[in-house]
Amino acid sequence: MTQDYRPGGPRHRLLSVLVENKSGVLARVAGLFSRRGYNIFSLAVAPTDDERFSRISIVVDVESSPLEQVVAQLDKLINIVEIVELHPDEAREAELLLVSVTTDASQRSQVIQLVGVFAGRIVDVGQDAITVMVAGAPDLLDDFESLMRPYGIAGIQRTGRIALPKLDTSASTATANIA
User: Fold this and answer.
1) Yes or no: is domain 12-90 CATH 2.160.20.80?
2) Considering the domain 92-163, what is its CATH architecture?
3) Coil, strand, or helix at residue 69?
4) How would DSSP label each residue in 2-17?
5) Beta strands in 6-161, from DSSP E residues, in sequence order
6) Which residues are registered as beta bridge partners of 103?
7) Are both 12-90 and 92-163 of the same fold?
8) 120, 132 contact by CB (below 8 A)
9) Domain spans, the chain
10) pTM for the predicted model, two decimal places
């Protein structure tokens, strides 16, 4: 069963919400989704470089409610500074995956080789399993997870999607910013 998890796909959209870094803001945002029956596919939050603000990345299931309705309701909350929908073609997305993979001695080298191909790191080693960390675009993590499944996944956790708009790389803008 394949679903389209990409923001911009038919089912999910990615919102980048800048909020005041105050107690209870995340609870109010989550409460809004709960009260209205909106489904959150992924949520990640962290402070920005300005300690007054945090950024919440929310992947919204638009089959549960129209995106415009979600944005309008979010915009009504106090402590919301800015809401931006990030389209996949206009954003840099990343996610972190931790996975414990069951391996015996004969398979361990294969798993380690795949970890290297995906630029991951082994963060823990046990007798019958290793724990691996891989960061990257969500599609990359989907591929890595699929390759690990035949070995046996003992535990798995993903952080949820984070994203920022792509930077303008046009020559005229870059030159103007340097001058």
Assistant:
1) no
2) 2-Layer Sandwich (3.30)
3) helix
4) ----SBTSSSEEEEEE
5) 12-20, 39-47, 53-61, 80-86, 91-102, 121-125, 129-136, 153-158
6) none
7) yes
8) yes
9) 12-90, 92-163
10) 0.80
pLDDT, residue 89, reads: 87
The rounded distance, in Å, linking the Cα atoms of 6 and 9 is 5
For the stretch 84-141, pLDDT in tens is: 999 988 999 999 999 999 998 889 999 999 999 999 999 999 999 999 999 999 999 9
Across 111-131, b (16+ Cβ under 10 Å) vs e yields: bbebbeebebeeeeeeeebbb
Cα 116 from Cα 128, distance rounded (Å): 20
Q: What is the pLDDT of residue 125?
A: 95
The two tokens of residue 132 are: 């691996």
Residue found under tokens 């001695």: 105
